[in-house]
Sequence to fold (372 residues):
Amino acid sequence: MKGIQMVNLVSHYNRYKKLIDARINSVLEHGKFIQGPEVREFEHELAKFLGVNHVITCGNGTDALQIAFMALNLKEGSEVIVPSFAYAALPEVLLLLRLKPIFVDVNQDTFLIDIKKVEEKITEKTVAIAPVHLFGQNANMEAIVKIAKENNLKIVEDAAQSLGSWYCSENIHGASGCIGDIGITSFFPSKNLGCFGDGGAIFTNDSKLAERARKISNHGQSKKYTHEIIGLNSRLDTMQAAILLAKLPHLESCIYGRVKVAERYQSELSKISSIKLPKRDSNGTHSYHQYTIKLENSIIRDNLAAYLHSKNIASMIYYPLPLHRQKAYSVLIDLSVSENLCSTVLSLPICPELTEVEQFEIINEIKFFFNQ
Ligand SMILES: Cc1ncc(COP(=O)(O)O)c(C=O)c1O
Fold:
């Protein structure tokens, strides 16, 4: 029994099968599996789509964060402000590089980094702010850019979930991940633009940073067997670049599909008072990488998830534990919003291939659960 999954990657592939297969076959025929021509072609096409000067692809989104921070060449022990309600990649990479993640709380309605809390955490050791554009919506970049300018801080944007969304405020507009000094994304299969394995990219308008990031991603080499700085082996496979090239022209229509699903959830679930729906920040677009609702408490949330599971409908808890409470990065602070969200959020299936019939099945089961 397959039921309704969070994302349907097989029907997604079937939708673009001809285009993807043609690209894959072409790689099989030329045989340049590492750093083949598709890699640079994809970087060029993605840079054009985003309106950013440089795109450097790499092995995955976590490596992209590591390369971005390595490229910034920050002093050991420096502090970087990050949200606690997010994915683990940021603190993991910071601690590996002997930088210190400083966790802050998020806004309870948008799930995004709480700007008022950011200012409170700035010390003489702070060197950067790393907003996460969680679930596909951009953090308040207008405020983040202002704070960064006033305090001489770098901005590293985590756009792993928001690729293809746009930030637009009074003074700032641009593609998600391309507004700060450096930004990253992930091409993990379920992401807005997913490949068929691991993949990631770094974005920047700064030529020097771009040059360093490119070197770092390829063993710190300027040319073959000339290692100038310490680097990594983190390259996007040619095959993955080929798949992404086939899919990139359809990213906007895929996001449109996600938005349609989100709008239907929004209008149908708004009648259930026990559910708090995700709030939109008015600045720019939302790519709805996830559609995440909030329940009154953890018991109702867990019961709803179990009920949906019994009906063969997937749901996920993004995320069950705030980062400051994880054993690996644990700090004794109280971030009550992040903690509350971890026990009350539930993400529902969302992808461009989710049919109206499937979505009404989910909606009707949720209504039934709440006796509506
Ligand atoms: C917000 C965020 N940042 C970073 C990453 C890391 O990306 P990857 O899985 O490609 O390493 C993810 C992946 O789930 C993510 O959601």
Summary: The CA atoms of residues 89 and 256 lie 28 Å apart.
